[in-house]
Design brief:
Strand order of the largest sheet of chain A: 2-1-3-4-13-12-11-8-9
Distance between the termini of chain B: 38 Å
Largest sheet of chain B: 9 strands, mixed
Number of strands of chain A: 13
Shape of chain A: globular
Number of helices of chain B: 14
Shape of chain B: globular
Bound molecules: zinc ion
Helix content of chain B: 25-40%
Strand content of chain A: 25-35%
Radius of gyration of chain A: 17 Å
Strand order of the largest sheet of chain B: 2-3-1-4-5-6-9-10-11
Structural class of chain A: alpha/beta
Strand content of chain B: 15-25%
Structural class of chain B: alpha/beta
Radius of gyration of chain B: 21 Å
Number of strands of chain B: 17
Order of helices and strands of chain A: EHEEHHEHEEEEEEEEEHHH
Largest sheet of chain A: 9 strands, mixed
Distance between the termini of chain A: 46 Å
Oligomer: heterodimer
C-alpha cells in the first residue's frame, strides 16, 4: 500500500460478474473508507491490461464460456501473476477460483490451463449441481468466525499439497470432493465457492484482506449491526430443517 | 384465417371440456384462477391440443425477461381494433397456462400469447405464430435459470426456419443474436438501460464496444442492425419516418418501449400506428402492476421488479425525492432462492428518498443499502412501513412473491 491509498482491482467485470460478485468489491471499498482509507477502485475489462501495482484483486464467478475467455486473457496478460509475486492479495469466487488453479474443465469439456496461483485442479462433477446454503468453519489460523454462504456450481475442486482448505463444511458441498473442504488458500491468494456475495454475510473476510494489505493485526471497529443480523438469520435458516 | 371455422377433433373437444372441469374444481377449492391446472389436465388428454387450438388463430408470441405481460396486454388491445382477441392476460405463460387461455377463446381471430423464455422455441413450433415479439434478455433467477447467453442460443436455434415475422429489439445484443437466424425480422430501436449481460459478444466472445446508443463487436463485426421502428422520447417513428405520439397511463420509459414494439406488431396485421397507440391508452394496470391503491389512508403505487434490469427501469419511473419508497424482497421458489442479484441493482439511485425495507429477505436488503451508504428503516410489516413513511404518494417496489403478498394485504 502506498500513500495511504488502497488500490482495489476488480478483475474482468465484463466476464466474471454474474452472481452479484460486484458486492465483494463494494463491501471491501465501503469498509476501507469507514476506516478512513482512501480507496482507488480500478475495474479492469478483459480487453485492458491488469495493473500490477494493486493491493487487493477481486475475481468473481461467471458462466462457462466467459470463464474460458477470462482464463485465456488472464494467462496471456500475465499481470495478475506479477502482482501476486509483488505480494498482492487475491480473493476469488467460483469460476474465478477455478481459473486461479492449475487446471479446470471448460465449456467445451476440455481441460484448460489455469494461472497456477493456487495448487488446485477442478474437474466437472458427475452428480447434481451444488446449489444452496453453506455453513462452514474457516481454517482456525485465519481467526475468522463461521462462514455462511450460497453455492451454485458444478465443478469439483481437488486440493494439491501446497493449498490449504479455506474452510470445512458443516452444511453444503463446498469443493464437492466429499472430504468436507471448502475453498483453498495459500499465503495471500484465496478461493471459495461462496456467492452471496460472500462478504455481505462475512464482512470479517473483507477485514482480513484489509489487514493483510495494511500489514496490521487489527482495524478500528465499525457498526456491524446489519451484517450481524443477516449472519444470524442465514445461519439459523441453514440449520433449521426445511 | 379468422375465427374457429373448422371444428376441433373429438379428442381435442374432450380435452378442452376436461380442462374446464378441472379448472372449475380448482377455483372452487380456492386455488386461484385454475387456469394452469385446467391446462395441465387438457394437455394430458391431448398433447397436440395447443396446436389444434391455435390452428384457427393468427398467433402473436411475446417473450422477454422483462415486460412480456405488459406488452402482451398492449398488443391485445391494439389488435382488438381488427377483431376479437384471446390472450393469457394473467401471465400464465407456460404451455399449460397458454392452452387453458386459448381454450377459452373459440370466437377469436387473434391469439396474443405471452411465453416464458424457456418455452418459447417449443411453443413457437406448436402454434405456428404469425409474429414473434422479442423484447430483451438479462439475468434472472440465477439459482435455476439457464445462462442468459445459452438462452439466446436456444432461441436462435429454435427460431431458425420459422416463417413468423420476428419483431425484435435491436438495442439488446442478445436479442439481435437470437433473431438473426430468422429470415424476416422487423428491428425496433426500443432501447435498454441494462447492459451488463452483453459486454461479451454472443457470436465470438470479443469485448463489445458501446459508443452512445450504438454497439458492435470489434472482432467479428457483429453489430447493431438498422431499425425500421424507433422509440424517440415520447414518440415512435414508423418505417416511413412519421412520428406518432405515445400516450399511456402506464408510467416509465420501458412501457414506451413496449408500446413501440406493440405498434410494430400491430402494423404487421394492418393496424395503423395511430389506431394501435390510441387503443393502448386504455391499459391502466397489468395484473396489479402500476396500480395506485389506497391503504391506511395513504396512496401506494405498486411496482413489480424481479431482476436487476427490471429494478433499473423501475428506478427511472418513480417520483423523485422526497417521495417515500418501500422495498420488499422475498426469495421463495418463484423468486429464485439466491439473493445475490441484489448486489447488481443500482440502489444508490435511491439516495435522498426515505426508504423502508420489508419482506422475507429484508436483512439482505439492509446490508445492501448499508454498503450503498443509504439511510433506511427496516420494518416488520407493510403496515408498519406505511405508518412510518412521511407524507406523499408511496412508491412500493417488490419482487415477485413479495408483490403478491403486498397485493393480498392491500386487497388489490
Ligand atoms: Zn464478435
Amino acid at each position: 500500500m502506498s500513500d495511504n491509498s488502497l488500490r482495489l482491482v476488480w478483475v474482468y467485470p465484463d466476464l466474471l460478474s454474474t452472481y452479484g460478485d460486484q458486492g465483494n468489491a463494494l463491501v471491501v471499498e465501503r469498509r476501507a473508507r469507514q476506516r478512513g482509507l482512501d480507496v482507488q477502485r480500478v475495474d479492469v475489462r478483459s480487453d485492458q491490461p491488469i495493473p500490477t501495482s494493486g493491493d487487493i484483486y477481486l475475481i468473481g464467478g461467471g458462466e462457462d464460456r466467459p470463464q474460458r475467455l477470462a482464463a485465456e486473457r488472464l494467462l496471456r496478460d500475465g499481470g495478475l501473476e506479477r502482482a501476486v509475486s509483488n505480494g498482492a492479495i487475491v480473493f476469488s469466487v467460483c469460476a474465478g477460483y477455478q481459473i486461479l488453479g492449475n487446471e479446470f474443465v471448460n465449456d467445451m469439456g476440455e481441460r484448460q490451463e489455469g494461472l497456477g496461483l493456487l495448487d488446485v485442479v477442478t474437474v466437472r462433477g458427475e452428480g447434481e449441481r451444488c446449489v444452496g446454503d453453506v455453513l462452514a468453519d474457516i481454517d482456525p489460523r485465519l481467526n475468522l468466525p463461521q462462514l455462511t454462504g450460497f453455492e451454485n456450481h458444478q465443478g469439483v475442486t481437488h486440493l494439491g499439497p501446497t493449498a490449504r482448505p479455506f474452510a470445512r463444511t458443516r452444511l453444503g458441498r463446498g469443493n464437492g470432493t466429499g472430504d468436507g473442504t471448502e475453498g483453498a488458500y495459500n499465503d495471500t491468494v484465496f478461493g471459495t465457492y461462496m456467492h452471496g456475495p460472500v462478504m455481505a454475510r462475512n464482512p470479517q473476510i473483507a477485514d482480513l484482506l484489509l489487514k493483510l494489505a495494511l500489514d496490521v493485526n487489527a482495524l478500528p471497529p465499525i457498526d456491524d449491526r446489519w451484517y450481524e443480523a443477516l449472519r444470524a438469520e442465514r445461519i439459523s435458516a441453514a440449520t433449521q430443517p426445511a | 384465417m379468422a375465427g374457429n371455422t373448422e371444428p376441433l377433433s373429438p379428442r381435442a373437444k374432450l380435452a378442452v371440456t376436461a380442462g374446464k372441469a378441472a379448472a372449475a374444481v380448482s377455483r372452487a377449492a380456492g386455488r386461484g384462477s385454475g387456469s394452469v391446472i385446467g391446462g395441465k389436465v387438457a394437455l394430458k388428454l391431448d398433447p397436440d391440443l395447443l396446436g389444434a387450438l391455435a390452428q384457427h388463430l393468427d398467433v402473436v408470441l411475446v417473450s422477454a425477461t422483462n415486460g412480456k405481460t405488459t406488452t402482451t396486454r398492449l398488443i391485445a388491445e391494439a389488435l382488438r381494433a381488427s377483431g376479437p382477441v384471446v390472450s393469457n392476460a394473467l401471465g400464465a405463460n407456460m404451455p399449460a397456462g397458454i392452452t387453458s387461455a386459448l381454450a377459452g377463446g373459440s370466437d377469436a381471430k387473434y391469439g396474443v400469447i405471452e411465453v416464458d423464455e424457456k418455452y418459447l422455441a417449443g411453443v413457437a413450433r406448436d402454434v405456428t405464430p404469425k409474429v414473434i415479439a422479442l423484447l430483451n434478455l438479462s439475468r434472472d433467477q440465477l439459482d435455476r435459470a439457464a445462462e442468459t447467453r445459452m438462452l439466446a442460443e436456444k432461441w436462435r436455434e429454435g427460431l431458425q426456419g420459422s416463417k413468423a415475422v420476428i419483431v425484435a429489439n435491436c438495442d439488446d445484443p442478445l436479442i439481435v443474436w437470437s433473431a438473426s437466424s430468422s429470415q424476416n425480422v422487423v428491428w425496433v430501436a426500443a432501447g435498454q438501460e441494462w447492459k451488463d449481460d452483453a459486454w461479451s459478444c454472443p457470436s465470438c466472445g470479443g469485448v463489445m464496444q458501446r459508443p452512445g446508443d450504438d454497439w458492435f463487436c470489434g472482432e467479428c463485426g457483429f453489430r447493431r442492425p438498422t431499425p425500421s421502428w424507433v422509440l424517440s422520447g415520447d414518440h415512435v417513428l414508423d418505417p416511413h419516418g412519421s412520428a406518432w405520439p405515445i400516450h399511456l397511463q402506464l408510467p416509465g420509459r420501458a412501457n414506451k418501449a413496449n408500446a413501440a414494439t406493440s405498434a410494430a406488431v400491430a402494423a404487421v396485421f394492418g393496424v395503423p400506428p395511430q389506431v394501435a397507440l390510441e387503443r393502448m391508452y386504455q391499459v391502466q394496470a397489468v395484473a396489479g402492476r402500476y396500480d395506485v391503491v389506497s391503504f391506511q389512508g395513504r396512496e401506494l403505487r405498486l411496482l413489480l421488479a424481479k431482476n436487476p434490469a427490471g429494478w433499473l427501469e423501475t428506478f427511472s419511473l418513480i417520483d423523485g425525492p422526497p417521495a417515500p419508497v418501500i422495498l420488499s424482497v422475498n426469495a421463495r421458489g418463484a423468486d429464485g432462492t439466491d439473493t445475490s442479484w441484489l448486489w447488481d441493482v443500482d440502489y444508490p439511485r435511491l439516495a435522498g428518498h426515505p426508504i423502508f425495507v420489508i419482506g422475507d429477505r429484508k436483512l439482505d436488503l439492509a446490508v445492501r443499502l448499508e454498503v450503498a451508504g443509504l439511510d433506511f428503516r427496516v420494518c416488520e410489516t407493510l403496515d408498519e412501513a406505511v405508518q412510518l413513511a412521511p407524507p406523499g404518494q408511496i412508491e412500493l417496489i417488490a419482487n415477485y412473491t413479495a408483490f403478491q403478498d403486498v397485493r393480498r394485504r392491500v386487497g388489490n
